[in-house]
Amino acid sequence: MSETEQKLRSEARDLLEKGRVNHIIGYEAGSLKFSTTPLITSDKEDTDRLVINPFINNNLSVFLGEVGGKAGIVARGCDARSIVSLIQDKQLAREDVFIIGVPCGGIIDLDKVEKLTGLDRDEIDDIAWQGDKAAVTIGGARKEFPAKEVLTDDCLSCEPPDPREYDLLIGEVGPLVTDGELGRSKIKELEAMTPEQRWEFWKSEFSRCIRCYACRQVCPACFCNRCFSEETEPAWISPLPRWQDNLVFQAIRMIHVAGRCTNCGECERACPVNIPLRSLSKKMEEIVDELFHYRAGTDKEAPPLMAAYQPEEAEDFIR
Amino acid sequence: MTQDAEYEPRILGFLCRWCSYAGADLAGTSRKKYPANIRIIKIPCSGRIDPLLIVRALRVGFDGVLVSGCHPGDCHYQTGNYRARRRMSITKKFLEYMGVEPERLQASWVSASEGGKFAEVVTEITSDLKQISPNRLFSDERDGTKAAQ
Amino acid sequence: MKKIKKQDVPALLVKWQQDFTVFAPSKKSGVSRMEVWDGQDTAFLDRNRNTVIPPKANFLLNIEKMFDFRKEGGSYTLEPAGGEAPRQLLFGIHPCDARATAIIDMVFKDAYEDNYYLGRRRNSVLVGMGCTSPYDSCFCTSLGFGPAEAADVDMMLTDIGDAFVIEEVTDKGKELLAGAEGVTEATADDTKKADAAKAAAAAKVTRKINVEEIRKRIPLSFDDKKFWEKVSAKCVSCGICTFLCPTCYCFDINDEMLKSGSGARYRNWDCCSFPLYTKMPAENPRAEKWRRVRQKVHHKYAFYPELFNIIACTGCGRCIRQCPVNWDITQILASLPAGAPAAAEKK
Fold it and tell me: What is the mean pLDDT of chain A?
């Protein structure tokens, strides 16, 4: 167990014991290799199971709306931004959440490791950081990969990786390897295409969608009580998973969460059919930044992007 | 794609009831000529526009969408058009990234006294849309059942 | 027992293509699922792990047109869609998915015969392939069968390296092999190798559940609100575990209308984890998340056994593997309380 983990466990226990929070939301070891799972508890004994490692991939702020009472939540940089964004949107009162900021050295993208090794994750024995390399052990043999090759695209272009809004910061913020250009390489590929090619690309991607709505359900920014996609009068999109409606659903979802999405990458990771949703969300982040110099979840006092305006704003597209 | 001489784009216009709708009305009463390609839906304010309405219009086959409201500073509700502007600029850039031609999303400020401008706007966007293909974004020959087999 | 060399399989598939649309596991669409065989790909002969999308998608379509309707004056004319179901051959289906298909056959031919599903089933051939590399989420051996089970397919292939040993299970299976080029009688040595491969595969399934104990405990858990609240806390109510479950069969029915009042009726997958499940006709009786999670577990391990005397789970592990929050049904089942809750703790 790392020092950080030790500290996290004792702090979390203390918070529950002293009654400063009603719940702790953190991560515990998952039931599969290299997995973690959300731990949501009000029992101080459970805090001994809290973990911090390169596989803590859920954005736990999605649970804040449903636990009730005051919650102590383990937050990485992106999670903390999501929390701030929820506060901006008045979905959450700052005093109802106790943010336990944790250093994030980046999350290891198991899909990338699978691609690099040609194996599935359950066939790999061990993955661990060795300095700025990931040491992957398979059948006793060890291979090392530079961090840049195994970090998730989100982590490569994460800014800032350390939580800026917190009540307690545990541990030192580790040296995170970032490479924004590498992180957006898929976007660059798409930008180089013609509009027709891009449309064909997305059409093909969304042909696989089974409309399980995991992308929406894991998204902290998707907090509507009733999603437009489930309206029946009128039915904005067909409930049938046709590519056309799958595409409309996701395009609108992305536009609706513009300025709220912190690019935690949960939607893409949750997607069971591997639709590269992050290539949409990250691009949206860039558009918002370019047009309005706005970055989601960086200022809890700021009005939400879509609730604000400046009288002088680019309108070269308006006749 | 070469354009069929007969191609007449179908445009859906969302016009705010205070300015642009009145402007369109004025264009009519002052007998300004403009292409009959636009169908108009009156909305309470351009701030009512949800990107969903725009994408839905494309989904059902309109070749282009026009959102039109009061000039900056003139919104009946003070700020509706500013909010619409933000939403429109994001939507336009984002849909362009997905592969929707920028010509399909149009916006204008037309006041109640600008009947002439409304006629010009419709003339211009109709001509813009004639430069690109009809909207086949969502067309698909496959029947759902066959596709799933 | 028969035998076929791996190199001869493509020719056999080509032969079968004359009578069937041949499906085989493939990742070419970007996700692994049963895909119409392209005549080229043979990767699945050497490496065939469970697909992400279960083969139930070939029988219970996610977009199934039921009928067209036409409005004429004050009345409607219905035209059933499709006609005869396509003849399909699923090559390389795993025992867990084949068993799952047998399990949901029961519900589709129960009180009401569902001919959309049954028609596809009747016109289908299942060529099973023993699972040689189960995932760490697999637990089929706890459910009364294993990764080599042949009972639910028409013929069963067992990988013995450069060849498959083939067990002919049904008459349909026998017919398909009769006179096929490259198919020979298996030698005693081949069957010995096959038996060893089967045993090795079964040994790789290390995740276990205790079905006997679960059967005892699950009815007692129904009123245990506290338990269900606890185990449902991290569920995000998405549709992954049900849509990817080979034994989940819920569907929703939707009409697509044209302006004239004519249109078509379709059905698509539905999911009891969705807060809006059954909202269309009335209300979702399971508004809270814990009730939905309880429903999911009870449906598989309590209600279905009551109705059909079989657990509606085959341990394929998809719900564990694909869950975005690692909600693990085997852990939930293992933590079922030994007794019923005290009266005061009931819902």
Answer: 93
Domain CATH number, residue B99: 3.40.50
Q: In chain C, where are the structural domains located?
A: 2-204, 211-345
* Phi/psi of residue C299, nearest 5 degrees: -60, -40
CATH assignment at residue A129:
3.10.450
Q: Is residue A127 part of a domain?
A: yes
Of C254, C321, C327, the CB nearest to A240: C254
Does residue B69 sit within a domain?
A: yes
Is B148 in the C-facing interface, judged by CB distances under 8 Å? yes
Instruction: Give me the phi and psi of B142, to 5 degrees please.
Output: -65, 135
**pLDDT confidence bin for A171, thresholds 50/70/90:** confident
Question: Out of C31, C239, C276, whose CB is closest to A208?
Answer: C31
Tens digits of residue pLDDT in C143-182: 999 999 999 999 999 999 999 999 999 999 999 999 899 9
Low-confidence ranges of chain B (pLDDT < 50): 1, 142-149
The set of chains that have 3 or more CB pairs under 8 A with C is: A, B
A:257-296 residues touching chain C, CB 8 A cutoff = 266, 269-270, 272-275
What interface predicted TM-score (ipTM) does this complex get? 0.94
Q: Do A241 and C268 touch (CB under 8 A)?
A: yes
Write out pLDDT tens, residues B23-37.
Answer: 999 999 999 999 999
B1 found inside a domain: no
CA C83: distance to chain centroid?
A: 24
- Specify whether A179 is located in the same domain as A264: yes
Interface chains of chain B (3 or more CB pairs under 8 Å): A, C
For residue A96, pLDDT over 90 is answered with yes
User: Do A35 and A144 fall into the same domain?
Assistant: no
Q: Are residues A130 and A204 in the same domain?
A: no
Q: Are residues A142 and A43 in the same domain?
A: no
Check B94 against A317: CB less than 8 A apart: no
Binary contact (B89, A228; C-beta < 8 A): no
Look at residue C346 and tell me whether its pLDDT is greater than 70. Answer: no
C138 in contact with A, Cβ within 8 Å: no
- Check CB contact of C63 with chain B, cutoff 8 Å: yes
**Does the CB of B142 have a partner CB in chain A at under 8 Å?**
no
Domain assignment present for residue A171? The answer is: yes
Strand partners, C265: C67, C255
Residues of B (105-144) whose Cβ lies below 8 Å from C? 143-144
Tens of pLDDT, residues C255-271: 988 878 899 999 999 99
Which chain A residues are closer than 8 Å to B82 by Cβ? 309-311, 313
Residues 6+ apart with CB under 8 A from C18: none
Report which of B130, B47, B138 is spatially closest to residue B100, judged by C-alpha positions. Answer: B138
* C65 with B144: Cβ contact below 8 A: yes
Half-sphere exposure of C237 (CA within 13 A, CB side): 20
Q: Work out how many domains chain B is built from and give that number.
A: 1
Domain membership of residue A318 (yes or no) is: no
How close is the nearest chain A Cα to the Cα of B29, in Å? 22
Angle at C240 between CA C235 and CA C245, to 5 degrees: 115
In a domain, A55, yes or no: yes
Q: Which residues of C234-260 are buried (b: 16+ CB within 10 A; e: fewer)?
A: bbbbbbbbbbbbbbbbbbbebebeeee
Residue B4 inside a domain? The answer is no
Q: Give the domain range for residue B52.
A: 11-148
Residue of chain B minimizing CA distance to C62: B148
Same domain flag for A62 and A127: no
Residue C282 pLDDT greater than 80, yes or no: no
User: Total domain count for chain A?
Assistant: 2
- Residue A96's identity, in one-letter code, is D
Q: What does the pLDDT read at residue B3?
A: 52
Q: Which residues pair with residue A73 across a beta bridge?
A: A25, A99
